[in-house]
Design goal:
The chain is α+β, with helices and mostly antiparallel strands.
Length: about 140
């Protein structure tokens, strides 16, 4: 019997924070905690950026541990999270379309304080919210 695809949902808005530089672990930790603490209606935060692998993938030291000072444990919402990348983009999912303007203003205020080197903010939908044809075929 074929698996039924989940019902289509209304996509929730996301705020994209695009810093002018890659963020260090300390700045990432501060930014994420401030957003979670000071911005109501945040459903989920996703980060993306340059990978910091645990081992060297190429060169004469291939397979040796890569000891990068920014690959470390940070605390977000009281939980320890291993930061395995230099953050270049932050996606903040807002739980309701009616709260986007207020959330955007608060996020901008936080970014002005923590990211003095510049950033840009955009509102849209950046993550997939329903299965693709490939996901459907693979029964994900």
């Amino acid at each position: 019997m074929a698996k039924k695809p989940p019902q289509e949902q209304i996509p929730l808005p996301e705020v994209l924070i695009f810093p002018a530089r890659l963020l260090k672990a300390e700045t990432t930790e501060k930014l994420l905690n401030r957003i979670y603490d000071d911005v109501p209606h945040v459903r989920h935060i996703t980060v993306s950026g340059e990978s910091l692998p645990a081992t060297l993938n190429a060169g004469p030291g291939k397979g040796l541990p890569a000891e990068h000072p920014e690959r470390r444990i940070i605390k977000v919402k009281g939980q320890e999270v291993e930061l395995r990348l230099l953050v270049g983009r932050v996606f903040v999912e807002i739980d309701d379309i009616d709260n986007v303007d207020d959330s955007l203003a608060r996020i901008e205020s936080i970014c002005n304080e923590l990211l003095p080197f510049g950033f840009s903010l955009e509102v849209g939908r950046y993550s997939k919210f329903k299965p693709t044809v490939t996901d459907y075929k693979k029964c994900r």
